[in-house]
Amino acid sequence: MEFTFTIPDSALQDALTERMKTYKPVDPFPAVLNKQQASKFLGCGRATLDKWIKEYDDFPVAVIGGSYRFTKSDLEQWVKSRSQKHSH
């Protein structure tokens, strides 16, 4: 048995409008990242990430129990500060 029904465009638009009020995009990255996640987040390779860790004294990394950890907010701020220094 098959049923067909029609939803008025205005009802569909109202439903979408209500849904968008509570919509929150899904962030694929956790707040604290490991090396693999950090390099993906920054859009660079692991070798580049390792180079930046060694080369820049202000690179935002924490070593916890021998594991490298990065926060997204610190990485974003670091990239922003580097781009501001080189935009002049």
Automatic annotation (TrEMBL):
Boundaries of each Helix-turn-helix domain copy?
Answer: 33-82
What InterPro entries does the record tag this protein with? Answer: DNA-bd_dom_put_sf, HTH_17, WH-like_DNA-bd_sf
Report the domain of life of the source organism: Bacteria
SUPFAM superfamilies hit by this protein = Putative DNA-binding domain
A Pfam family that this protein carries is HTH_17
Q: What is this protein called?
A: DNA binding domain, excisionase family
Tell me the organism. Answer: Limosilactobacillus coleohominis 101-4-CHN
